[in-house]
């Protein structure tokens, strides 16, 4: 788990819709399949073109038997898995197809919840918050005394070049590092998002969070009064009376936003 040296506040940009209402009504956030992301290079690894030795192929197959669908199976089933694919992957091309399939299946089972460290990105308000008519949720993780590894936001690294991944990592530790590269690396053009992710290896869908995590809601400078009043009403109704409200404003003469307190009338 990576350390976060700044504060513990993270932001989620949203449009106004039923799924956004559900964040308050059910106190839950959506963990999505990575294949639904808008960047086709995201969680889409590029693999080394090389000749893998029989030892490398066998090692990967043995490690794969302990992951994914076979993880909770008996030793006998895992051994059958190992023997089957050691026999079938008797050529480099067959092994490469097998390795890509195993990784793809693992990503298909994974759920990802994306957050940001910034609340005033003009581009993100435009792309993810309904052209500034939406809202931003502020989550403050400093209120939690203990956070499990699969609940902690991990920082995205932004790179100019895409790292080539080996289908034959030498150890579980190397495999873990490669998975982090795949899941937590994006092209440098996305750096303005300052993204963090919470990962769950085997879950997709809504997952509940502690109500005290949500500390503030920021409305866009084009958000309608009707939508603001609706969200404030939901917060009062579903146990989020502690949440504070702000509204974004354009700072004249600049390309910046400022947040000012918003009180419902």
Which features does this protein show?
265 residues, alpha/beta, 31% helix, 14 strands, 7 helices, 2 domains, 23% strand, five-stranded mixed β-sheet, single chain, three-stranded antiparallel β-sheet
Summarize the structure.
31% of the residues lie in helices and 23% in strands. The chain is elongated and about 70 Å long. It has helices at 18-25, 54-64, 75-88, 92-109, 122-128, 172-183, 225-237, and strands spanning 9-14, 28-31, 46-47, 111-116, 135-140, 154-155, 157-159, 164-165, 185-187, 195-200, 205-208, 214-219, 244-250, 257-261.
Task: Summarize the helices and strands and which ones pair or pack.
Blueprint: E1 9-14, H1 18-25, E2 28-31, E3 46-47, H2 54-64, H3 75-88, H4 92-109, E4 111-116, H5 122-128, E5 135-140, E6 154-155, E7 157-159, E8 164-165, H6 172-183, E9 185-187, E10 195-200, E11 205-208, E12 214-219, H7 225-237, E13 244-250, E14 257-261
Helix pairs in contact: 2-3
Description:
The chain is an alpha/beta fold. The chain contains seven helices and 14 strands. The chain has helices at residues 18-25, 54-64, 75-88, 92-109, 122-128, 172-183, 225-237; strands at 9-14, 28-31, 46-47, 111-116, 135-140, 154-155, 157-159, 164-165, 185-187, 195-200, 205-208, 214-219, 244-250, 257-261. A five-stranded mixed β-sheet has the order 1-5-12-13-14, with helices on one face. A three-stranded antiparallel β-sheet has the order 4-10-6, covered by helices on one side. Strands 2-11 form a two-stranded antiparallel sheet. Strand 12 (214-219), helix 7 (225-237) and strand 13 (244-250) form a beta-alpha-beta unit. The chain is elongated, with a radius of gyration of 22 Å.
